[in-house]
Amino acid sequence: MSARLATATTAKSSGTVTALVNGAAVTVQVARDLTVASGDVLLVEKVGAQWFAYARLFTAAAPPPADNDPVPDPKPAATTGTLIVAPVETRSYRPTSGWSSDSTDVYQGQYGGYDNSTGAAFYGSAARSLAGATVTKVTVRVRRKSAGTYAAQATTLRLVTESTRPVGAPTLGASTAGPSLAVGDSTTFVLPDSWGQALVDGTAGGLAIYDATGSPYVRLAGRGSWSPAFTLAISWRRG
Predict the structure, then answer these.
(1) DSSP secondary-structure letter at 72?
(2) 175 and 207 in contact (C-beta within 8 Å)?
(3) Is the pTM of this model over 0.85?
(4) What is the pLDDT of residues 117-176, one digit of tens each?
């Protein structure tokens, strides 16, 4: 049998070492004048049933794991990205008149003799393409249009269950303080990460502005009057 390389897993003792040969641990007879430490690479040869080491090569190296110690798979590298999701529709809802048909703008509050408005944006199924990913940040683009008091007015954002416009009122979920905007102002507003996760997981499908008191009265641009209106940027991570 021709010579081959082996890796010592013990130091020389009583003229022998234990070494890995072809992945198997064997006892190797060591030349009398050869000093061997664990991790040394040896030149070995088999004579009959016995292995013999007669040279030490290279520099010492850490021994590989024993056969009964499985080598763990390397941790996969994390994948990250940002998904841009535009709403499939923006509309406003009033209990007595239903969904607006003459405007895609989004209204919050009550004006004059009209009842309290709920403005909503629906996102369809686009966010669900990230199913299984973890949302690390989510933002929404909004702009205020002329209506009500010119000075900055607060909005209240709500999570909406439906991903497309329902026949009746939208189902409102969690709430958070939204941006406070004067007429003409626009902003990129940071939403709770959990809201983005709900959109990705499919437990929510839209956003709304709604204040139960009916005040303040606010009009935000919809898709028909400002193309970035209510566009989401969902940052995500896998792995």
Answers:
(1) P
(2) no
(3) no
(4) 999 999 999 999 999 999 999 999 999 999 999 999 999 999 999 999 999 999 999 999
H-type alpha helices, 114-219: 193-201
Side chain identity at residue 34, one-letter code: L
115 and 153 together in one domain: yes
Say if residues 159 and 140 touch (Cβ distance below 8 Å). no
- Round to whole Å and give the CA distance between 136 and 157: 19
Does the residue 70 lie in any domain? no
Kindly report the number of other CB atoms within 10 A of residue 62's CB atom: 8
Instruction: State the Cα–Cα distance between residues 85 and 228, nearest whole angstrom.
Output: 10
Q: What is the spatial distance between Cα 111 and Cα 148, in angstroms, rounded to a whole number?
A: 8
CB of 203 closer than 8 Å to CB of 224: no
- H-run or E-run covering 6: strand 4-8
Domain assignment present for 104: yes
The total of structural domains in the chain comes to 2
Is it the case that residue 61 has pLDDT exceeding 60? no
* Domain that residue 134 falls in: 79-238
Same domain, yes or no: 99 and 19: no
